[in-house]
Amino acid sequence: MSRIGRMPIPIPKGVEVQINNNIVSVKGPKGSLSRALLDNISAREEDGTLYIERAEDTKQLRSLHGLSRTLVANMVTGVSEGFTKTLHLHGIGYRAQVQGDRLVLGLGFSHDVFVIPPKSITITADSVSPNMDNSYRTAIITFSGIDKELVGQVTAKVRELKKPEPYKGKGLRYNFETVIRKAGKAGKAGK
Question: What is the DSSP string of 38-105?
Fold first, then answer.
């Protein structure tokens, strides 16, 4: 039996769960989400707790049981608390600002890069004084929303625009990410 799949999902106060024809709909204070479960996986609600169960014990269904439980648990967490991911922009002359519903990034290209997120994603950009803790961090960009998958996807697409490079560490990186720096030509000549 899947250890993750058999874990119960507690339903917080203010969150409503409806199950119709293997479609789980979750509604909470931040919004509503719905997802269709696989054919042999079902959901049932009992005493303020949600359980995800599988009909058979095949290898493929065992592997998808934990996934289905995690996806439904993320929906419950999303409509009650929401999800947030943060990118740090490092580099002299790089900038990020929100204009209306789009993110405008100056990443050292000959033109500004415009990112228009989906309606359910909120983006904020806070400027930080350069040379704070000697890392040339110029902006902190925060992505938030109720769908964990969509928040992660938008954040990853923005990070792809300018990945951190290993020599000076310039670029977009996650807040928990560390960039392993390489020595340039001057570092090799001194050895």
Answer: PTTEEEEEETTEEEEEES---HHHHHHHHHHHHHHHHHHHHHHT-EEEEEEEESTT-EEEEETTEEEE
Block mean pLDDT (10 aa), the chain, length 191: 84 93 94 93 92 90 92 96 94 90 92 94 83 66 96 96 91 90 74 57
Mind listing the domains of the chain with CATH numbers? 9-80 (3.90.930.12), 83-174 (3.90.930.12)
Q: What are phi and psi of 150, to 5 degrees?
A: -70, -40
Spatial neighbors of 123 by CB under 8 A, at least 6 apart, are 98, 103, 115, 117, 141, 142, 143
Distance CA 2, CA 61 (A): 10
pTM, entire model:
0.86
